[in-house]
Design a protein that fits this description.
alpha/beta; 7 helices; about 55% helix; globular
């Protein structure tokens, strides 16, 4: 009985450590397009590096994106035009916009995300975006191109 108790305690210890590795995630609706893929990669990487919050990219059509945020199946979306009831988190030179649903703004576990995105918005320039798109259009995967340029700039 004593060995069963010790074994149970050890198993609970290991399970607790494994569960601790996985935190809450944000879901980003990403319409089709090279520019959208590049900006999504840039955004997700910056959020992860600066806040530790993981962001999952969800492919959506343009008309599904806003519906997903209102239905709370998506937390953020990339869109060409602002939406009346959604907060703009990031304005990318040359577009698109990153809009937010309720969770990134209200949920306690995401309190660092909005300030990080505002800082990213202050860093982004048209020149940076041109360099990013040149790399992506030349065949560099968006995540690799984003990481390379942000490391060159010492943003991450």
């Amino acid at each position: 009985m004593k060995s069963f108790f010790v074994l149970t305690c050890l198993l609970l210890l290991f399970v607790g450590q494994a569960v601790a590795c996985f935190g809450p995630k944000l879901y980003l609706g990403v319409p089709e397009g090279e520019r959208e893929a590049a900006i999504a990669a840039l955004t997700c990487l910056y959020i992860k590096e600066k806040t530790g919050v993981e962001t999952v990219q969800v492919p959506v059509s343009a008309d599904q994106a806003v519906t997903g945020v209102y239905g709370e199946t998506l937390d953020m979306i990339l869109v060409a035009e602002p939406e009346a009831d959604l907060t703009v988190l990031l304005t990318v030179p040359g577009g698109p916009l990153l809009l937010s649903g309720r969770r990134p703004l209200d949920a306690l576990q995401f309190t660092t995300v909005v300030p990080a995105l505002k800082k990213l918005g202050n860093l982004l320039t048209a020149e940076f975006m041109d360099r990013l798109m040149t790399l992506v259009e030349a065949g560099t995967p968006p995540v690799a191109a984003s990481r390379q340029l942000m490391m060159e700039q010492r943003w991450i």
